[in-house]
Specification:
CATH topology of the largest domain: Aminopeptidase
Structural class: alpha+beta
Largest sheet: 9 strands, mixed
Distance between the termini: 14 Å
CATH superfamily of the largest domain: Zn peptidases
Order of helices and strands: HHEEEHEHHEHEEEHEEEEHEEHEHEH
Number of strands: 16
Shape: globular
CATH class of the largest domain: Alpha Beta
Bound molecules: glyoxylic acid, manganese (II) ion
Strand content: 15-25%
Length: 412
């Protein structure tokens, strides 16, 4: 039985509401960092929506918000989740939409006075993007039990993770206590963040797996100097070197093609004045591929190529790996169940791989995972222009409800 609800429109409206003050750390647009005032405001609001949907709520030591709707029998829950944090200058749907759809699944059951043979936990993860501290998926890793040690992280304003966690009553050495005892499955709905579904005229797709990723923080050091007096052949210009490195990274990825992608997404130039030769440049490198081995081979060649540029230009060069996650296949049995729900709801079967990272790739250590992708306009994401159609979100909710019902029938 599928429970009808107007939840698709409400899920979108709630994401839109979370895209503005006080749920953003900036007045002009959306940026919600982990453990910021906007994160606090979002937690309070989302917890209120969870309680309205019949859930009990709590914050775990990693500052994941967990709403729980009890089942008729003891045992591990079904987890439905995604993240509340955002990139800088974000769209409204990357993350929050999956949380809102989880709440809508529970709200429909609650409105019908129904419980399933298992509890449902809706989790709003605190950090997926790594947009404040240089480590992504910190809180899903804590919850999944894969956060071995927590480095001394510092944000761009010099605030330590320790200080930020203290503001929420936690501490780095308490993150491990967020470890979850286990779940029957983890389900995440997310905008596709790419153009495939739209190009094929499809609202929804079943994710087969998530690409492997690795991230580096690199520093290039030359010599700062006077832009008017220092002759060109005598310069050690860190930015000219870094620019050549960016092009080399792009060339390496282009030469490999396929699902291999490499991005320099952040760069700081110091001292950063029009009349000073740049002496110090820091930038990030993000490399992804469908398979760990392809990612690693590309990353190795990229580091070699930029080291060669640094040597030729007499620049000092340092690279630190700050993040690595293996490729994460979704569970075949759950994929079949999600596809069945999709087809029963009148959609063509379509499976696709995710180049974007998701909490699901970390949650695979805790439970079998399933992901449902929702078409987004022009495939645009990590951008304020991010957009989803209410009809597509409503369709996703119907499919999720069917999928959850099926899990219930299997365990009845
Ligand atoms: C998360 O959005 C990522 O793929 O970087
Ligand atoms: Mn994202
Ligand atoms: Mn996301």
């Amino acid at each position: 039985m599928v429970i009808a609800s107007p939840g698709g429109a409400r899920a979108v409206a709630r994401c839109d509401a979370l895209g503005r003050l006080p749920f953003s750390d900036i007045a002009d647009g959306l940026y919600r960092g982990y453990l910021t005032p906007a994160h606090r405001a979002a937690i309070d609001q989302v917890a209120a929506w969870m309680r309205e949907a019949g859930m009990d709520t709590r914050l775990d030591p990693a500052v994941n918000l967990i709403g729980r709707y009890e089942g008729t029998a003891p045992g591990p829950p079904l987890i439905i989740g995604s993240h509340l944090d955002s990139v800088r200058d974000a769209g409204c749907y990357d993350g929050p939409l999956g949380v809102m759809l989880g709440i809508e699944c529970v709200a429909a059951l609650h409105a019908a006075g129904r419980r399933l043979p298992f509890a449902i936990e809706v989790i709003a993860f605190g950090d997926e993007e790594g947009s404040r501290f240089p480590a992504a998926m910190l809180t899903s890793r804590a919850l999944a039990g894969t956060l071995d040690d927590v480095p001394d992280l510092v944000d761009a304003d010099g605030i330590t993770l320790r200080t930020a966690l203290a503001g929420f009553g936690s501490a780095p050495d308490r993150l491990a206590l967020a470890r979850h005892p286990g779940a029957i499955a983890y389900l995440e709905a997310h905008i596709e963040q790419g153009p495939v579904l739209e190009a094929e005229g499809l609202a929804l797709g079943v994710v087969t797996g998530i690409a492997a990723q690795v991230r580096y923080a690199t520093t290039v050091r030359g010599t700062a100097g006077h832009a008017g007096t220092c002759a060109m052949p005598l310069r050690r210009d860190a930015l000219a070197g870094a620019a050549e490195m960016v092009c080399a990274i792009e060339a390496q990825a282009l030469a490999r093609g396929g699902d291999l992608v490499a991005t320099v997404g952040r760069m700081e130039v110091r001292p950063g004045a029009a009349n000073v030769i740049p002496g110090d440049v820091r930038f990030t490198i993000d490399v992804r591929a469908g398979e760990d081995a392809r990612r690693d081979a590309a990353a190795e060649d990229i580091i070699d190529a930029i080291q060669a540029i640094a040597d030729r230009r007499d620049l000092d060069f340092d690279v630190q790996r700050i993040h690595v996650l293996p490729a994460s296949p979704c569970d075949p049995y759950l994929m079949d169940g999600l596809e069945e729900a999709l087809v029963e709801a009148g959609h063509p079967a379509r499976r696709l791989v995710s180049g974007a990272g998701h909490d699901a790739m970390v949650m695979a250590a805790l439970a079998p995972t399933a992901m449902l992708f929702i078409r987004c306009r022009d495939g645009i994401s990590h951008n304020p222009a991010e957009h989803v159609e209410i009809a597509d979100v409503a369709a996703a909710l119907t499919v999720m409800q069917r999928f959850v019902e099926k899990l219930g029938e299997c365990r009845a």
